[in-house]
């Protein structure tokens, strides 16, 4: 039982960390930069957010009782430009994350081995969470990378700044050993 609670706490912190990374990247951009796509085969940040939100809403609405690929989801439509301003982008971002965190917070340790379905393929709740723990940071990495390219030299680092690894490590090793999630310090720095 203890490990199950630790798992839920750990993944919640990790998802919150990646959500915050995405938000800190978005904050650094001018509103029009959210809609930049460098060519026909790339997605703008706004489009990536449409996809993330669509995935979250589909996967986590009634996730214990309905398939994670909802009939009402239009995945292909998530890759078409339909947002027009930063407010719409952020509203959709928040809608997806609210749905996801509501579902995640509803999970009890004894439900972690429950089988749920995504496109008729059975997954334990743990597997479904882990699947998204790979998927969402993948797209948030795209957002951060894209935002950094758009900002160029004006970028405020969201991790260990370039050429600062030694001082970062010196600070970490100057402290007593402790058991905590890696996101505890990182979230504080981002806030």
Backbone structural class: mainly alpha
Q: How helix-rich are the residues, as a percent range? A: 55-70%
Taking all residues together, what is the mean pLDDT? 91
Strand order of the largest sheet: 1-2
Taking the sheet with the most strands, its summary is: 2 strands, antiparallel
> From the alpha-carbon coordinates, what is the Rg to the nearest angstrom?
18 Å
What is the overall shape?
Answer: flat
The helix/strand series, from N terminus to C terminus, equals HHHEEHHH
Distance between the termini: 32 Å
| Percentage of residues in strands | under 5%
The unreliable regions are: none
Number of alpha- plus pi-helical segments: 6
Number of strands: 2
Would you write up a description of this structure?
There is one protein chain. With 191 residues, this protein is mainly alpha-helical. The protein has helices spanning 2-27, 45-60, 86-106, 125-151, 165-173, 183-190, and strands at residues 115-118, 121-124. Strands 1-2 form a two-stranded antiparallel ribbon. A hairpin with a 2-residue loop joins strand 1 and strand 2. Helix 1 (2-27) packs parallel to helix 4 (125-151) and helix 1 (2-27) runs parallel beside helix 6. It is flat, with a radius of gyration of 18 Å. The chain starts with a helix and ends with a helix.
């Amino acid at each position: 039982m203890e490990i199950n609670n630790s798992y839920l706490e750990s993944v919640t912190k990790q998802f919150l960390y990646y959500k915050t990374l995405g938000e800190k990247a978005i904050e650094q951009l001018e509103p029009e930069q959210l809609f930049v796509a460098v060519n026909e085969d790339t997605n703008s940040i706004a489009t990536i957010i449409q996809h993330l939100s669509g995935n979250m809403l589909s996967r986590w609405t009634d996730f214990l009782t309905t398939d994670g690929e909802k009939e009402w989801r239009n995945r292909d439509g998530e890759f078409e430009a339909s947002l027009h301003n930063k407010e719409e982008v952020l509203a959709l971002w928040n809608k997806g994350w609210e749905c996801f965190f509501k579902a995640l917070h509803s999970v009890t340790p004894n439900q972690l081995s429950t089988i749920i379905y995504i496109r008729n393929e059975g997954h334990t709740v743990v597997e479904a969470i882990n699947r998204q723990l790979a998927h969402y940071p993948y797209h948030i990495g795209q957002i951060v990378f894209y935002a950094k390219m758009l900002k160029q030299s004006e970028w405020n680092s969201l991790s260990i700044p370039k050429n600062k690894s030694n001082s970062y490590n010196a600070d970490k090793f100057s402290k007593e050993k402790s058991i905590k999630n890696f996101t505890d310090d990182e979230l504080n720095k981002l806030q």
